[in-house]
From TrEMBL:
It comes from the Eukaryota. SMART domains: ZnF_PMZ. The keyword Ion transport does not apply. Keywords: Metal-binding, Zinc, Zinc-finger. This is SWIM-type domain-containing protein. Residues 254-288 form the SWIM-type domain. It comes from Acorus gramineus. One of its GO terms (molecular function) is zinc ion binding.
Length: 405
């Protein structure tokens, strides 16, 4: 319920290998809260990462969260995922991790120049900027440009991201962070592993619920820090007002149009992320009586953070004191791939964010914040590695201004 009530409609999907005696794969779906910290939504242990396993995982994910407006997935294009996502979530976007994209690209077109230009294309918030960097690639190699043009730009460049999810991520670091967070459990026997992860998630939710009660104000700490940082860098921007809600904002290199009533800027960073870009900040701060915090999307609000952690995972006694709720003899409970061999050890799966109430979610618009950090001048909000409120057991997404670790 926490994902449905408080998180942006964004899920990172990934699989990682178990390291102990019992081999298998952990599949996971991870989102982020209003303060840009990872929020585990679902995980499962399967025998192999294949189409049947992902189909089974996505079916169970759908049964838990239902249809969500504007939902976007991010993955490394794992085996079977490209078919499983549209099968269960036909209207969802499927974004590609640019780090994974580049690893495939550089096998044919290596070199630092291509690496820099691909990341520039990915991090561009608007089409003119994206096309500019793509032309630079074409001037270096027409074949390299043709390769990239054959990919769906909407899947890997911010310039083509819709504003539905309020997400600026171009890598799947959020899933990698979850894998790192559960790393020590991957050597455990499967049941012990699942129980340990459940304990970690249960305590994490309780800890963040306590943080939410302690914090004050409209925004979560990272959003507030972003706003406080960006207003320090607006000095060189010239604002020419057209009306109370429209203005041209001239920077060192180009002029941008900002509309406060629509919360848009032609640089598109504001629309994609939900955080006022530096051009919007320059306009807002020059109008007496306006508070820039009022122009930050509600997905960064303290209330959304509290909504995320309002529900809890019910505690469980030792197995001798509880009834077994999983129907191990029910073939529908497991991926088809696990049923091909007799006497296969059945994996345990868990919807990480379930609570004592209903698991089924209604369609809801649930945007949330992009990573927040000090923005480059003339650009939109950037990713930051600072995670206020995290403890030493927390592994949250850490992304720098280039979208890379």
């Amino acid at each position: 319920m926490g994902f449905i009530k408080g998180c942006r409609p964004f899920l990172g999907l990934d699989g990682c290998h178990l390291k102990g005696k019992h081999k298998g794969i952990t599949l996971s779906a991870t989102s982020i809260d209003a303060n840009n910290c990872l929020f585990p939504v679902a995980f499962a242990i399967v025998k192999s990462e294949c189409g049947d396993s992902w189909k089974w995982f996505m079916e169970n994910l759908y049964s838990s969260i239902g249809e969500i407006r504007g939902l976007a997935f991010m993955s490394d294009k794992d085996k079977g995922l490209e078919a499983a996502i549209p099968l269960m979530f036909p209207s969802a976007e499927h974004k590609t991790c640019v780090r994974h994209l580049y690893q495939n690209f550089k096998k044919k077109y290596p070199g630092e120049l291509f690496e820099r230009l691909i990341w520039n294309c990915a991090n561009s918030y608007n089409t003119p900027s994206f096309q500019w960097h793509l032309r630079e690639i074409k001037s270096a190699s027409s074949n390299a440009a043709t390769y990239l043009e054959g990919l769906t730009a909407q899947a890997w460049s911010r310039s083509q991201f819709t504003p539905n999810a309020r997400i600026g991520y171009v890598t799947n670091n959020i899933s990698k962070s979850f894998n790192a967070w559960i790393n020590k459990t991957r050597q455990m026997p499967i049941v012990e592993m699942v129980e340990t992860i459940r304990h970690k998630i249960m305590e994490r939710i309780d800890h963040r619920r306590a943080l939410g009660r302690k914090w004050r104000g409209k925004l979560v700490p990272k959003a507030l820090k972003y706003v406080q940082t960006i207003v320090k860098d607006i000095g060189e921007y010239i604002v020419r007002r057209s009306s109370d809600v429209m203005a041209e904002v001239a920077g060192p290199d180009f002029t941008i149009v900002v509309r406060l009533d629509e919360r848009t800027c032609t640089c598109r960073a504001w629309q994609v992320t939900g955080l006022p870009c530096i051009h919007a900040a320059a306009f807002i701060t020059r109008i007496r009586g306006l508070d820039i915090c009022d122009f930050v999307d509600e997905v960064y609000s303290l209330q959304k953070f509290r909504d995320t952690y309002a529900s809890s995972i019910a505690p469980m006694p030792s197995k001798g004191f509880r009834s077994i709720s999983i129907l191990f003899n029910d073939p529908q409970s497991f991926p088809t791939a696990l049923l091909k061999k007799p006497n296969t050890v059945v994996p345990f799966s868990s919807a990480a964010t379930s609570n004592t109430g209903s698991k089924r979610g209604n369609s809801a618009n649930r945007p949330q914040p992009p990573p927040i950090g000090k923005p480059n001048k003339g650009s939109g909000p950037q990713h930051n590695s600072s995670n206020e409120g995290d403890n030493k057991n927390t592994a949250d997404e850490k992304v720098n201004n280039n979208g890379k670790n």
